[in-house]
Amino acid sequence: MSTKLILVRHGVSADTTAKRFSGGLDGSNPPLASAGEAQINAAMEFIGEVDVIVSSPVRRARQSADLLAARVGLPVLEEPGLAEMSFGSWEGREMAEVMKTDPEGFMGFFSSIDQVAGATGESLIEVQARVRHACADVVAAHEGKRVAVFSHVTPIKVIVADALGAPLLSVYRSQLDPGGVSLIEFGKRGQRVLGFNLRYVG
Length: 202
Prior knowledge:
alpha/beta; 6 strands; globular; single chain; Rossmann fold
């Protein structure tokens, strides 16, 4: 019996709109913006029926999950391993600013799987390790279910890359929009990507 994870990127926060580095719980943890709520409400048609709702504990993801929970009457289960990457000293800073003030660190990070973000944050391979563990726990706990998983751009792209058997750096070569919905099936023969970024808000 297959398990389906419906991966939902949270709606926009003020940091998303301003293109700031906004990581997990060690950052500013901004709330979901009203435009983000609209994105999640619009995404509902792509989510469909679910048996379980799981969320990153980061505020913008949890608030996105709460919108679905209120509609379908299910509790939200938090999974810390699905939090966004930690960006260290880059937290809260605009990407364009970091590119100008720390070009070597910026380019090194986006071309490597093991260089940490902002000197004290996480590397991509560290994120992959914790996301793999969290994903395996979710699938094992909810076998045969349709699970809505509210997370962030990096963890979701990592899960998709793993399902495709793609190189880890491929996460920087795809676009996942706020409120974008992706679908991964976990079965006896492994993982299959059934859909990626199924909605777009310009």
